[in-house]
Amino acid sequence: MEGAWILMAETKNPIISCDHVSKTFYSLAGDHLVVDDLSFNVYENEFVVLFGPGQCGKSTILNLIAGLELPTKGKIIVDGEPVVGPSPNRGMVYQTTNLFMWETVMQNVEFGPSVRHVPRKKRREIAQKYIDLVGLTGFEKHYPVKLSGGMQQRVGIARAYANEPKIICMDEPFGHLDAQTRYLMEADVDRITHAEKRTVLFVTNNVEEAIYLADRIILLHNCPTSVHKEYKVDFPRPRDYTAPDFLALREKITDEMDKTL
Amino acid sequence: MKNLSKRLGTLALSLLGIGAVIIIWALAVRYTRIGLLLPSPWEVVKRFAYVCSHTIGKKYTVFGHLLISLKRVLIGFAAASVAGIILGISMGRFKMIEAIFRPIFEIVRPIPSVAWIPLAIVWFGIGENAKFYIIFMAGFVNITVNTFAGAKQVDENVLGAAYMLGASKLQAFFRVVIPSCVPYIFAGMQVGLSTCWMAVLAAEMVSSTAGIGWTITSGQENGDMVQIFVGIIAIAVVGLLMAVLMRWLEKVLCQWRERGS
Predict the structure, then answer these.
(1) Is A199 exposed, middle or buried (0-12, 13-18, 19+ CB in 10 A)?
(2) Min distance A246 CA to chain B CA atoms (Å)
(3) A216-220 and A167-171: which strand pairing?
(4) Which residue from B157, B164, B182 is facing A96, i.e. has the nearest CB?
(5) Phi then psi for B39, rounded to 5 degrees?
(6) Over the Cα atoms of chain B, what is R_g?
(7) What is the pTM of this model?
(8) What gap in Å lies between CA A161 and CA A113, rounded to an integer?
(9) Whether B179 contacts chain A with CB within 8 A
(10) CA atoms of A94 and A105, how far apart (whole Å)
(11) CA contacts within 13 A on the Cβ side of A228
(12) Where are the domains of chain A?
């Protein structure tokens, strides 16, 4: 079944293509190889989860795709263009939210369109659409400091969407949230990404979260990071955390995960 | 409601404290030999009311003198703010500017503003410019130090988020760097304004023919103890009003930091 998926995938053009990417951090204390010969593709409107245990350089991969870091070897192509620096066609959602604390929810969500000089009326409309989508209607004039962790992360998601990017990268966005909020947010991300189809690259170290959200899970090797194995997930959505299929896959991935350490 | 009664209680205690000092002062003047060195509170109040409509010296009422001092402070403080904010931010954001200006600044920084008085008189004469210079130096140091600290703590990840959303360097500067420095700039301006207010008095006490500082020295020269007290109280009241005004302004400009409802 996995073989069939790869055959089918190869006939499409990838939106994200990582081609033998390596990243070494140089320092006086010694060189540190973090990403080692990493290759994978992500296709249009696919929800791909990069899954791996602990500190294995997952965030570095996202920084490379974002263009905040450049690879030491290999190349990354997003939507036909090689990545050479930050660009608004790649939206980011961060674990620490990185919201603009001095701007209201509306101003945060409008940030992308406004720096790209989208006319005021139009960008209000866009921002309102995504504020409504993430369920923050009525909080437009609030400052982030007054919102809960989950709500702040919703602002982060709306802010990334409002720029209408080609791909959205989410870097352990629910890592700081409590378990209850986390389940709610996962359900919401599932709903949002299917209401507004986008190519999503989602990083997590939580196996349940990976299976709940992913079309495809890429299991990564621990430091240095490379692709260990891929799993296609085609259970109907919204998924049930306790369904036998779900639990069986969870078991399979957890067993395999031990080999990556 | 409970909050209000609590606040009224605090206010009552504060007034009680001030009242006690005034009563002890009055009793001490009336019944001990301190009366030889100190005018009674009643005399000071009477004189204060008198100089509201009559001149101290030849030309100005107490308000006239205050206005002259305030004008000097505002000009010096405004110049100090502009220069301090520009230098602080440039040193905080650009390594090269920090390397050039930081050592010079660190040498100038510990010099108390009154130490500039003799030099200022030699350089600028005894006119207004010497006073502007002294006031400027008093405010400039505090404002620069705080702005610099603010510019250093700008979160690089938030700045990265702005670039990812498509902001240019200039846009990121005005929408991320400056607003995240504002609380620090304000802390510097608060301290700066009060040190400027102290410096104008010092400058006027050395050489001037008008201003609230001058009323104190002229009181001393004429052996007019009551006039000295009138000057001191006027200074205290204006200093207090300035602090209240700055705190209010900070609350308005930095409301995004307030957690409360």
Answers:
(1) buried
(2) 35
(3) unpaired
(4) B157
(5) -75, 160
(6) 23
(7) 0.83
(8) 10
(9) yes
(10) 16
(11) 22
(12) 2-82+199-260
Alpha-helical (H) ranges within chain A are 2-10, 58-66, 105-115, 120-133, 149-162, 179-195, 207-213, 244-260
Share of chain B above pLDDT 70, in %: 98
Structure tokens at B193: 């304004």
Q: Which fold has domain A2-82+199-260?
A: Rossmann fold (3.40.50)
| Cβ-defined contact of B166 to A116 (cutoff 8 Å) | yes
Q: What is the DSSP letter of B200?
A: H
Contact status, residue A42 vs residue A48, Cβ threshold 8 Å: yes
**CA pair distance A165, B257, nearest whole angstrom:** 30
Distance CA B20, CA B35 (A): 18
Could you tell me which chain B residue has the CA closest to the CA of A104? B256
Q: Is B257 within 8 Å of A101 when comparing Cβ atoms?
A: yes
The predicted-structure confidence for A102-130, as pLDDT tens digits, reads as follows 999 999 999 999 999 999 999 999 999 99
pLDDT band (50, 70, 90) for residue A1: very low
Closest residue in B to A101 (Cα–Cα): B256
Q: Which residue of A has its CA nearest to B171?
A: A115
Chain A residue with CA closest to B158: the answer is: A98
Residues 6 or more apart whose Cβ sits within 8 Å of residue B209: B57
Tens of pLDDT, residues B44-91? 999 999 988 888 888 899 999 999 999 999 999 999 999 999 999 999
How far the first Cα of chain B sits from its last, in Å, is: 16
Q: What is the count of residue pairs from A and B with beta carbons less than 8 Å apart?
A: 69
Q: How far apart are the C-alpha atoms of B230 and B216, rounded to whole Å?
A: 8
Give the mutation candidate from B155, B158, B165, B174 for the A interface (greatest A CB count, under 10 A): B165
Test A100 with B163 for CB contact under 8 angstroms.
no
Helix or strand run (H / E) with residue A70:
none
Helices (H), B153-177: 156-164, 169-172
Q: What angle do CA B202, B183, B14 make, to 5 degrees?
A: 60
Task: Give this complex's ipTM.
Answer: 0.87
